[in-house]
What does this fold into?
Amino acid sequence: MNQNGKKQRLPLAALVAGGLAGLANGFFGGGGGMILVPMLLGRCQLEPRRAFATSVAVILPLCMLSAGIYWLRGGLDLSLALPYLVGGLAGGFLGGKLFRGVNILWLRRIFGAFLLYGGGKALLGW
It folds into this structure.
């Protein structure tokens, strides 16, 4: 429901963005946010802070689903994942706390740098 009490239709761009993010997470074991944030900024026209925050909210259940599938198929060793989970929780907490204080231009630059780094790793094997 929107503010006027009318039923809203889910925009096609939102469905496509979510679908591509889920596909990336399931296929590559992650990376859905790298697809989702640019789509939320561009096609879905969200303001940058809202796009980053929305991406995190969407990625959580996608990651849980992907991890569950990997675990059921025997591809996930939870004992190996635990140290990364602890570090990831600490980093996620710190990032969430610092998020509001970082200039949006720097958030975009940092995100872009991660995209370039990931692309370089994938394409060039850095």
Summary: The chain is about 75% helix and 0% strand. The mean pLDDT is 85.
